Amino acid sequence: MAISFTPLGSGSKGNSILVSNERHKFLIDCGFSYKGITEKLALVDVKPEEIEAVIITHEHTDHVKCVHTLSKMCNIPIYATQKTLVEIDRSIGPVNGRVVDMRGFNIGGIDVLPFRIPHDAVDPVGYAFADKNSKALYATDLGHMTLEIKALAKDSDLIMIESNYDETMLKNGPYPVFLKRRIASDTGHLSNSSCSKAILEIIESGPKQFILGHLSENNNTITKAREALDNVMKKAGAEEGKDYMACIAVQHTVTATVLSKCY
Fold it and tell me: How many domains is the chain built from?
């Protein structure tokens, strides 16, 4: 069975992704309350005790809100970089922590490769996954697309990528200037435009399945993100269903499971 992503919720108020190949299940991040996570898992018929691990991208609250409780209540190992684990212990509480090997490690038959991401956290990472049938990539909270991320994405079947903000909405929105600059910086978040251009470049290596995630509730809409992607693809002559498939993960409800083998 191919690796799949089920976004339990994705956005500026909380993030958690269920990764599965049917035989094994683990989470990327846990940025909701413990009650919220368990309720979301129940919606896809998964019990907390079935989760073999939680792998953490970085220490911001919208990614680690219930990490202490989840680790304590269910005795789930929490994988993160050393610096991130230290920050989690300081700001949230102790966890059953395991330091990720940046050369790669394995969870339940799925190979996991951490990679650096440009974001304003202590030691943020994204993750690439592979088993004998498929490859998948998770890359959100990006100030920009690095060459390493692009290369990993081109070698993947399924990519969850950030499409955080519409540039006009951010510019004209209510945020203070310093926060607007932080979001739009090289260590902030990826705009709809930058996301769409990255997707166009990634599909040069062949058809891919994409999930657009981490949309801002204040500076973006599903319509804006979709329009940006459609416009870039249309100009380039790329066809959805032939050259790529794309869906958008939402904040408050579970998004349908996406398999990494879709063509």
Answer: 1
The CATH number linked to 47 is 3.60.15.10
261 assigned to some structural domain: no
Domain-embedded: residue 61: yes
List pLDDT tens digits, range 185-222.
Answer: 999 999 999 999 999 999 999 999 999 999 999 999 99
Q: Which domain holds residue 119?
A: 4-253
Domain assignment of residue 64, yes or no? yes
Is pTM beyond 0.90 here? yes
What angle is formed at CA 217 by the lines to CA 186 and CA 170, rounded to 5 degrees? 45
pLDDT given for residue 97 in this prediction:
97
Q: What is the pLDDT of residues 222-233, one digit of tens each?
A: 999 999 999 999
- Let me know if residue 186 belongs to a domain: yes
DSSP designation for 205: G
For 75-94, b where at least 16 C-beta lie within 10 A, e where not — what string? ebbbbbbeebbebbeeebee
